[in-house]
């Protein structure tokens, strides 16, 4: 009973951390720092943290063999580099509610990737779920929202978030064999290192550009939140909870994150919830629910973990 409470607490805190990020990031971007600059700070900070942690906890563990090293390379590119660059680029242009809802289709992409890459069974309910989620996501992406701060319409931002969810969904399928074979910190240290080689060239100029002396304490707190809580703490809590949580419980928390994100964005005045967005959310949630139901006789596999290394 005590452990069950801890698992729920850990998963709730993770969902809350991710949900709050949609609104907190908007305070920093683009006024104080560009999206790629934030990505560099996150990835480099996490690469150093997990690199040190892996050497302390699993010093003898090494990713070996050409196939596993290529898988780690692909995981770092998809799950860390492209994933975060696309997410923050999209969030910089679109609204917190749109971003949180579109990102929810990552489990749908994961199932499609499992069908293509692993030969997993596709069923009629899953096909219906994919169609529902696709309609919901497409309606959000194509809807004209408020113009972003830099004068661009949110359509491009919505597309970036869709690509971010796609990259993350494929990453989950690619990285899972590594997570089962090696210590998680060994895998994270490697893939964040790979991600750093992508993010640093793309965002270094945005790291150098800001006038850091002019940053108010609230902005420093927001940046610290994204580096420490969003990237490091959320993963550690989620990784621990995955050892004890059932797939059904993990699935429930998939829906909690965007619900919290909507509540936080509306409460802080960062976004507004309309009837159209509520209907779009129902379409996506219904699709993800159908897709997440495992067909019978399918070998048990791990449920969808984390964000973004997301967002």
Automatic annotation (TrEMBL):
It is found in: Cell membrane. Keywords: Cell membrane, Membrane, Transmembrane, Transmembrane helix. Signal peptide: none annotated. Pfam families: EamA. The keyword Transmembrane helix applies. Residues 10-141, 156-292 form the EamA domain. It comes from the Bacteria. It is a multi-pass membrane protein. The chain crosses the membrane at residues 7-24, 36-58, 70-91, 97-119, 126-143, 155-175, 187-207, 219-237, 249-268, 274-291. GO terms for cellular component: plasma membrane. PANTHER family: INNER MEMBRANE TRANSPORTER (PTHR32322), S-ADENOSYLMETHIONINE_S-ADENOSYLHOMOCYSTEINE TRANSPORTER (PTHR32322:SF18). This is DMT family transporter. It comes from Hymenobacter lutimineralis.
